[in-house]
Amino acid sequence: MSQPECSTKREPSVGMSLAVFLIAMGIMLFGLVIFELDIHIVMLVALAFACIVSVPLGYSFDDLLDCMKKTLGQSMSAMVIFIFIGLIIAAWIFSGTVPALIYYGLHYITPKMFLPVGLLLCSLTSMSIGTSWGTVGTMGLAMMGIGAGMGIPAGLTAGMILCGASFGDKMSPISDTTNLAPAAAGTTLQRHISSMWMTTLPAYIIVFVIFTIVGFFYQDGQIDYGTINTFIDTIGTTFHISPILLLPVVVLLVLNIRQFPAIPGMAIGTLLAVILAVVVQGVSVRDVISGLNYGYTASTGVEMVDTLLQRGGIQSMMYTFSLACIAISFGGVMERVGYLHKVVGLVVSKVKSDKMMVPLVIGSATVGTMVMGEVYLTLVLNGNLFRETFKERGLRPEMLSRLLEEGGTLTQVFVPWSTTSMFIMATLGVSTAEYWKFALLHYINPLLSILLCFVGYGVLYVNKPCRWDKRCGPVVEES
Predict the structure, then answer these.
(1) Is the pLDDT of residue 265 over 50?
(2) Neighbours of 366 (CB within 10 A)
(3) CA distance 283 to 225
(4) By Cβ atoms counted within 10 A, which residue in 284, 327, 348, 451 is the most buried?
């Protein structure tokens, strides 16, 4: 098991680590749930507590600051994506891409088929751009408008969007988490994705069937035609609607097929949208550039349409950006001082069955996300914690990387103080309490993975052939 990087100081005991962990969790839960304080302040208090109790271990302020700097540096690629998500949301609204998706969707998608079709569309979008956040802010935003026009509850629509966005994000070769998980576990991207198909595909089929059945409850008698017509008329008079506005979506899909890097791909999608905004919508270059920073602010005169479209821009991401900085700094102290290493190490030493490693890793990744509020640190931390253990037990690293995604990438939407949940609430206008029960994939997939492991499915050994992937050969660790 790897040691904390700030290991020149005295290590915390197991008892101290458990106490720090539980008190930090208590600060966040009581601050947010009981006292309903601002999440930034609560996270700052938790960070201050973690720093103060680390002083008796020999850590100075500069030492702790260095711990924070290192974790912030590791998460810089994710922080850059925050900026590009704000850019692409604003650009796709200015260009009319998001309004066109809503416009065509209200014309051709029936309430009965809205949920399964929306699930597929969000899945394809997320696979094409390699980010669930980008999908939520573009296709997801369009789906919220279509769902509102059809009288479908916002929480249900948001849950469907998250299922599709997370599935596509997990299976996309250009996704940041899909690349980070195998790197942390010591395997290749191809083997990681192949391993995820084992449990993710059956879970996705179950979710698709459930949403299809639920869709039957929203048929002709429940359609709010007045709302639908209001959306169609307002969008039609505000934007010049044309199939060419879907070009950014198509281009990003093609770039994904060619395995183009995510950030440059998002930059191209933004640039295309800016050109469409100027050429097709007649927006001035100055207004578009300003909108990329401050978001779309023009009023249509219809409140429910304005609520949906007035968003995006770099500044809209600063709330989440600042929260991510605090959460990552907190996670850095908890990890590098050694608190989380001690807690997880204690649990691992008690596990005798290889099958029990499945719920253990999933649970550890979930708890890590709850503590640190940020999935990138969770993947890196738990990958480092369990990498040697899996190697000693003869378990394949692609099994570990799969479990990291099931416990970290999927469960982050249930943690109200996580950067992902805050982004969802800011972008879709739906709280965690409203959508959590409809985010079916996010708990069906981990639970199914745990159930399947007890019948021997999904437990992968180095010395056994991989029947699930013909390309599977000797394990080669990646640095």
Answers:
(1) yes
(2) 21
(3) 31
(4) 327
